[in-house]
Design a protein that fits this description.
Radius of gyration: 13 Å
Low-confidence stretches: none
Helix content: 40-55%
Distance between the termini: 14 Å
Number of strands: 0
Number of helices: 5
C-alpha cells in the first residue's frame, strides 16, 4: 500500500471514530468525499478530527493552519483527498512507522 493509501485508510478510520459507524452506513468515504456536503461534519466533529490527526501525525499536521490558507469556497468543498494530500506533504516525524 502506498503512503497515500495508508494515510487515507487512517483518516477514514478517524472519521468513523468521530462521527460513528451508524452515520456512515450510506456513505462510502474516499478521496472525493466532501466534509461539508457528503459528511455534514459539524464544527465540533471537525475539531475532534483535527485533534486525532495531530495526536497521530504530530504537530506538523496543523489543520487550523491548513484551513486558514483557504477561502470560504475552498473550505466548503474540501475533500478527504485534500486533507490526505496535506498530511502526505508533511515530513514523517522521527520515530514514526
Amino acid at each position: 500500500m502506498t503512503r497515500q493509501g495508508e494515510i487515507l485508510a487512517e483518516v477514514v478510520g478517524m472519521i468513523v471514530d468521530v462521527v460513528g459507524e451508524d452515520f456512515l452506513l450510506d456513505v462510502e468515504v474516499g478521496p472525493e468525499t466532501t466534509f461539508n456536503d457528503d459528511l455534514a461534519l459539524e464544527s465540533i466533529e471537525f475539531v475532534a478530527l483535527a485533534e486525532r490527526l495531530r495526536a497521530h501525525y504530530g504537530d506538523g499536521v496543523d489543520i487550523a493552519g491548513f484551513i486558514a490558507g483557504m477561502d470560504l469556497d475552498q473550505i466548503m468543498t474540501m475533500t478527504v483527498g485534500d486533507l490526505v494530500a496535506h498530511i502526505e506533504a508533511r515530513p514523517v516525524p522521527a520515530g514514526a512507522r
